[in-house]
Design brief:
CATH superfamily of the largest domain: Pseudouridine synthase
Strand content: 25-35%
Oligomer: single chain
Radius of gyration: 24 Å
Number of helices: 6
CATH architecture of the largest domain: 2-Layer Sandwich
CATH class of the largest domain: Alpha Beta
Order of helices and strands: EEHHEEEEEEHEHEEEEEEHEEHE
Structural class: alpha+beta
Length: 325
């Protein structure tokens, strides 16, 4: 990120109103939460006096000023984005694990977004958010697989509409703790943000629909801590490999639905529950991969794309024993 000092000024011309509402009406590039933070930090002045209360009143004739550092996403040439498909409107990449799709304004992490700026010179203004150029959907940092990018604003609006209307088929492969008995099923619980945390939970919020098919079962025999180990002294952990289709696109949807059902995604540090600490030796990350996409491209062509399971997750499966229930 590159920081540039900015000063914004206004003269109040009408009405008596709250400071945060006045600012929200006069500036579009900063969110309401960002404005409130700037007020609390003493970066907003009324008649050259620092004002730290968002509910302060501004009057006609008052001079309002904001001092802030504008962040600008920087291109990074060293971020390699593996191309699965590209035409004049659309880029589809195979995102590696550990790479965030886009940073927040307070982050300076390597990201798909900064790699896109280095690769596509005209993408910075696609979509209207400089931190998410051309990005129409996202994957968690530790989730690998297929990601769709719009190369121009017309394609961006078209693809966003496809996602919002649920006209893009999205499939994932995941390894879940436990033995899921039903070979095919649905999770239908709504999902919403858990207050005062970075987590989401079922039972509240927006509708969410996840469909799954069982692809196989696995076992792992783990030795107890400090024991040399003969069979029978340790524990047998059971896993289910599932193919998943998302019918809605809620944040952390797969991870929340499976965890809520008692089958958290293996290696999930946020929703893994009692498995969070025991997973660290076997799983390099959460076992979740975006493996298939099918969509009608802006060009009018219907295309299907697939991404094989990456090497780190293949290696995990070689350490497990396949078994039939």
């Amino acid at each position: 990120m590159k920081k540039t000092q900015k000063i914004l000024k206004w003269k109040v011309s009408k009405g008596k109103q709250r400071l945060d509402k006045f600012l929200a009406e006069h500036i579009g590039k900063l969110s309401r939460s960002t404005l409130q933070r700037l007020i609390g930090q003493g970066n907003v002045l009324i008649n050259d006096k620092i004002q730290k209360s968002k509910s302060a009143i501004v009057m006609p004739g008052d001079n309002v000023k904001i001092l802030y550092k504008e962040l600008r996403l920087q291109a990074k040439e060293d971020i390699i984005l593996k191309t699965v498909f590209e035409d004049s409107d659309t880029l589809i990449i195979d995102k590696p694990p550990g790479l965030v799709v886009h940073p927040t304004p307070n982050q300076n992490k390597p990201s798909v977004a900064s790699g896109l700026l280095a690769r596509l010179k005209d993408i910075r203004n696609v979509g209207g958010d400089q931190f998410r150029p051309g990005i129409v959907h996202r994957l968690d940092a530790d989730t690998s697989g297929l990601l769709v990018i719009a190369k121009n604003n017309q394609a961006f609006e078209y693809l966003k509409k496809l996602f919002s209307q649920r006209k893009i088929e999205k499939e994932y492969l995941a390894l879940a703790h436990g033995k899921i008995q039903a070979r095919h099923g649905f999770f239908r619980d709504p999902i919403g943000r858990k207050p005062k945390t970075g987590k989401f939970q079922t039972g509240m919020g927006r509708e969410a629909l996840t469909e799954y098919w069982v692809e196989g079962y696995y076992e792992y025999f783990s030795l107890p801590t400090g024991v040399g180990g003969t069979k029978g002294e340790g524990e047998v952990d059971t896993y289910t490999l599932v193919r998943i289709q998302l019918h809605t696109g809620r944040t952390h949807q797969i991870r929340v639905h499976f965890s809520s059902a008692g089958f958290p995604v293996a290696g999930d540090k946020l929703y893994g529950g009692r498995f969070r600490h025991t997973d660290q030796d076997l799983f390099p990350r959460q076992f979740l991969h975006a493996s298939r996409l099918k969509l009608n491209l802006p060009s009018g062509k219907v295309k299907e794309f697939r991404s094989p399971l990456p090497e780190d997750l293949k290696k995990v499966l070689t350490q497990l024993k396949v078994f039939s229930p």
